[in-house]
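hey
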């Protein structure tokens, strides 16, 4: 039997009222729309606070990484008799067989000994949020890639030993390629790691200096320098 069309309403007949299911669907769509708009507005309102919250995170990350560097330095001293400096290059080459040149001009250069010796397994220890700094890529097989420019934000004081427990040995964040501390990235504070592996934060003044006991951290008059200017290796 052929299909038959059901009777159709006349063209000028009013539209039937929506079903309950259709009304529920419309209400749900309106609710989802308002939720979406509300979420966007909340994010826009909170975004300045979320950005500000990065400051404490940057500080805690810098403190954590500084302490990890301290542990690596202690292990290096235990194995090689002293902290990395120009005199440890030869023994590192002899014991590891590395062909890397291992210069000693910058903190990148001396920290590279921690990596080549196998004590530090990653370049990320040397990261702290700072201008011109980039996250290390963990490529350290050649002179050109091991702790490359912009992959280290910590300065290093060479020539110290564990007999100077209160002397600062690592501090940052330093803007790579300079001797300037970055006042913006860590809420205007610097992380200072002492030889005894205690890490503290100090304010960076408007001149970009760390002031301790009323003196610049690097002032030879600081009691922990014993009247001798520290041998500072700045990051490249």
């Amino acid at each position: 039997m052929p299909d038959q069309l059901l009777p159709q309403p006349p063209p000028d007949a009013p539209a039937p009222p929506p079903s309950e299911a259709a009304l529920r669907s419309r209400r749900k769509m309106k609710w989802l729309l308002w939720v979406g708009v509300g979420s966007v507005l909340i994010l826009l309102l909170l975004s300045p606070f979320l950005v500000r919250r990065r400051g404490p995170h940057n500080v805690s990350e810098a403190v954590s990484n500084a302490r990890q560097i301290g542990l690596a330095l202690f292990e290096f001293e235990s194995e090689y008799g002293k902290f990395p400096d120009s005199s440890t290059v030869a023994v590192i080459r002899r014991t590891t067989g590395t062909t890397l040149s291992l210069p000693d001009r910058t903190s990148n250069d001396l920290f590279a000994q921690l990596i080549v010796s196998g004590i530090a397994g990653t370049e990320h220890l040397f990261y702290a949020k700072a201008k011109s700094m980039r996250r290390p890529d963990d490529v350290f097989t050649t002179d050109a890639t091991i702790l490359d420019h912009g992959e280290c934000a910590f300065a290093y004081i060479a020539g110290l030993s564990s007999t100077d427990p209160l002397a600062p040995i690592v501090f940052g964040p330093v803007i790579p390629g300079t001797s300037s501390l970055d006042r913006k990235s860590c809420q205007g504070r610097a992380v200072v790691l002492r030889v005894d592996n205690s890490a503290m934060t100090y304010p960076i003044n408007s001149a970009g200096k760390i002031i301790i006991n009323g003196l610049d951290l690097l002032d030879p008059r600081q009691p922990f320098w014993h009247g001798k200017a520290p041998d500072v290796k700045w990051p490249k």
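The first strand starts at residue 155 and ends at 158. The radius of gyration is 30 Å.
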